[in-house]
Amino acid sequence: MIVTEPGFRDQLHRPAMGTRVAGPAGADHRRQRLILSHKAFVMVDSDVAVTTDATETATDRDHTRDWDRVAAFPVVFADELPSCLVRGAPLKQKPSELAQRDAEHYAPKTHPRIKLRGKMDSLHALNRLSSICYFLQLRMKAGRE
């Protein structure tokens, strides 16, 4: 998941009952629709998915995505092995003190990009947690009225 500043702004607004929550077109929203329906929210697609073949279904599109596949462990590298940014040596296994910066490089966990990624992940988790707490408060308040 790529987190952007506009995405954070969209998530940080205070939701109200009946809010329409948009998701990417063609994505599987069954779980989100169920969660949001209990909170009086409406899940809608942000754009209408365009298909060239009228017989093509959403599940057919989902299975043809190259990037959306089940992960296989251990990872089998087709090309050259990722290298360490510090020593420049290729590594077959990732040491615990390194994180994978991109497809070609491992970097120390103190690398600025890795530290920023950790802070963004923590901020996103805190945002989601505060959102859940807010929804629970709304639900408790609605139960008293």
Brief sketch in words of this structure:
By secondary structure, the protein is an alpha/beta fold. The protein contains 4 helices and 5 strands, in the order αβαβαβββα.
What attributes characterize this protein structure?
145 residues; alpha/beta; 3-stranded mixed beta sheet; two-stranded parallel sheet; elongated
Describe the overall structure.
- This protein is of the alpha/beta class and 145 residues long.
- It has a domain at 15-48.
- Helix content is 38%, strand content 12%.
- The protein contains four helices and five strands; from the N terminus they run H-E-H-E-H-E-E-E-H.
- The strands form two sheets. Strands 3-5-4 form a three-stranded mixed sheet, with no helix packed on it. A two-stranded parallel ribbon has the order 1-2.
- A hairpin with a 4-residue loop joins strand 4 and strand 5 (105-108).
- The longest helix is centred in the C-terminal third of the chain and has 33 residues, at 112-144.
- It is elongated.
- 1% of the residues are buried.
